[in-house]
């Protein structure tokens, strides 16, 4: 099951995900580090793929050729909770 990193809604999307693909629910860019299987906070460059180039804005679309859309399921419960909290904080503090 694929989910948007921002709104956490389940999305149906054809793979591979293009750089300009956006979430149908919230408009967030989907080809970004926060949706990637290799994204791991706390490690160097926050990426488990050693050949990946550094990306500063993890929530923005990028040109990484190593991108693999993360599959969310029950095994990712801890990651889902963390991302859910981040999304709620972004919503709370977004500029209007």
Characterization of this structure:
The chain is mostly helical and 96 residues long. It has one domain. It is 18% helix and 4% strand. It contains one helix and two strands; from the N terminus they run ββα. The protein has a two-stranded antiparallel ribbon with strand order 1-2. The N and C termini lie far apart (32 Å).
What descriptive keywords fit this protein?
mainly alpha; 96 residues; 4% strand; two-stranded antiparallel sheet; 18% helix
SSE topology:
Layout (H helix, E strand, L loop, with lengths): L1 E2 L6 E2 L65 H17 L3
Antiparallel strand pairs: 1-2
Compact description:
The protein has 96 residues and is mainly alpha-helical.
Number of helices, where a helix is a run of at least 4 consecutive DSSP H or I residues:
1
Total domain count:
1
Major sheet description: 2 strands, antiparallel
Q: Give the total of beta strands.
A: 2
Secondary-structure-based class equals: mainly alpha
Strand residue content: under 5%
User: Overall pLDDT, averaged?
Assistant: 86
H and E string: EEH
């Amino acid at each position: 099951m694929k989910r948007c990193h921002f709104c956490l809604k389940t999305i149906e999307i054809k793979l591979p995900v293009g750089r300009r693909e956006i979430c149908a629910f919230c408009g967030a860019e989907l080809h970004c580090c926060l949706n990637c299987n290799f994204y791991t906070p706390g490690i160097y460059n926050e990426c488990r793929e050693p050949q990946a180039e550094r990306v500063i804005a993890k929530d923005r679309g990028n040109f990484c050729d190593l991108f693999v859309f993360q599959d969310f399921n029950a095994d990712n419960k801890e990651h889902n909770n963390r991302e859910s909290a981040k999304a709620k904080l972004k919503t709370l503090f977004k500029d209007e």
